[in-house]
């Protein structure tokens, strides 16, 4: 679609190859949150230091936060979190990194040579700046940056855009840029999630009474400050609930928020408390899903699938299934392709 650059005359003092760069291509950068390079206390510490130093993630004044982060959290949490990562670490490393890489490869296949697809992590590796540079190097003059968060939050979507902004300010030669909007209520996203979860439920050895939709939590204060995250999660849930009411009339769909961090009040109800409450009030069979995560990660594979099951069973529940995220499944890649093609309108042939 982009015409080749016309020949031109440059000052004789410049070397003949000063503009001999590849041009005319379109790039897509899939971005997810980030994960440690290894399931060791040292690597987890480096990851947490970068992540939890981000002002978008912890919004309390630096003077208060930095002594807590460096004096307490970075001394105690890395060993505990490394133990959790060891339980989900796979042959290709961290699940979040491996799945995001697989999503990028699958999307590259779908989009063909007209588009260069790469992936990056907001924290740790592969770094956003390195991957954006690689797209420029490959001749991409137009780049779509796609944070893979269906629901917008300052801590995730906005932070990924901060990563892009930091790269922009540090480079002379910039491409044209677009960013993927949140897709929490996109009919294609709801349909993909509904179809994938329904397929997984059909494959279970039991019939769940409850489908619990668990989203990563946020401090409740961020909702009052105007972050749309809570509303986006609730809307995804409402649309999924409506879809399941049609396909699975006996299934109760509920929503909760997981991964509380720190002492402040977080969005409620909490996932762990909800599982215990369900079991205590007589629910025996639960399936849990995480529609806020585009890829399985520590928060789904350890917190939900392992600890969630323990909480539910200890409180009297008997059947528990943690359903997979869309990941690089056919439905997941169909969705990514649809979202990305829509955002690339005018840059690539329909
Ligand atoms: C999907 C959306 C996410 C939101 C919103 C979010 C907010 C948020 N997270 C923390 C603190 C931690 N999160 C951690 C891991 C983690 N978080 C997300 C996604 C969201 N976070 C993902 C995908 C992951 C998993 C990464 C992986 O490697 O698999 C962690 C690290 C793990 C641990 O030590 O428990 C922390 C810490 C805050 C404070 C926050 C909002 C303010
Ligand atoms: Fe998180
Ligand atoms: Fe809301």
TrEMBL record:
Record function comment: Catalyzes the ferrous insertion into protoporphyrin IX.
Record has GTP-binding as a keyword: no
PANTHER family: FERROCHELATASE, FERROCHELATASE, MITOCHONDRIAL
Protein name per UniProt: Ferrochelatase
Pfam families reported for this sequence: Ferrochelatase
Membrane-spanning residues: none
Localization: Cytoplasm
Family in the record: Belongs to the ferrochelatase family.
Segments forming a coiled coil: none
Taxonomic source organism: Novosphingobium pituita
Pathway(s) annotated for this protein in UniProt: Porphyrin-containing compound metabolism; protoheme biosynthesis; protoheme from protoporphyrin-IX: step 1/1
EC number(s) given by UniProt: 4.98.1.1
Binding locations of Fe(2+): 216, 299
Top-level class of the enzyme under EC nomenclature: lyase
């Amino acid at each position: 679609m982009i015409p080749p650059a016309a020949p031109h005359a440059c000052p004789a003092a410049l070397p003949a190859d000063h503009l001999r760069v590849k041009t005319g291509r379109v790039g897509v950068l899939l971005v997810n949150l980030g994960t440690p390079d290894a399931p060791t206390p040292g690597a987890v510490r480096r990851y947490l230091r970068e992540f939890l130093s981000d002002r978008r993630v912890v919004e309390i004044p630096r003077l208060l936060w930095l002594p807590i982060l460096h004096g307490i959290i970075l001394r105690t949490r890395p060993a505990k979190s490394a133990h959790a990562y060891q339980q989900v670490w796979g042959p290709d490393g961290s699940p979040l990194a491996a799945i995001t890489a697989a999503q990028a490869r699958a999307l590259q296949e779908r989009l063909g040579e007209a588009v260069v697809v790469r992936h990056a992590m907001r924290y740790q590796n592969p770094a956003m700046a390195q991957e954006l540079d690689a797209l420029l190097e490959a001749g991409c003059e137009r780049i779509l940056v796609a944070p893979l968060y269906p629901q917008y939050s300052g801590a995730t979507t906005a932070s990924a855009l901060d990563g892009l902004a930091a790269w922009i300010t540090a480079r002379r030669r910039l491409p044209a840029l677009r960013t993927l909007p949140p897709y929490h209520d996109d009919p294609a996203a709801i349909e993909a999630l509904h179809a994938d979860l329904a397929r997984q439920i059909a494959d279970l050895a039991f019939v769940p009474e409850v489908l619990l939709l668990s989203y990563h939590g946020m401090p409740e204060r961020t909702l009052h400050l105007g972050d749309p995250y809570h509303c986006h999660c609730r809307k995804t849930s409402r649309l999924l609930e409506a879809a399941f009411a049609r396909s699975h009339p006996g299934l109760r769909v509920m929503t909760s928020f997981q991964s509380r961090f720190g002492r402040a009040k977080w969005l409620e109800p909490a996932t762990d408390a909800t599982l215990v409450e369900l079991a205590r009030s007589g629910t025996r069979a639960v399936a849990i899903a995480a529609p806020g995560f585009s890829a399985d990660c520590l928060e789904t594979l350890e917190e939900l699938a392992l600890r969630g099951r323990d909480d539910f069973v200890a409180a009297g529940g008997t059947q528990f299934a943690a359903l997979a995220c869309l990941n690089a499944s056919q439905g997941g890649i169909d969705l990514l392709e649809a979202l990305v093609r829509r955002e690339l309108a005018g840059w690539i042939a329909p």
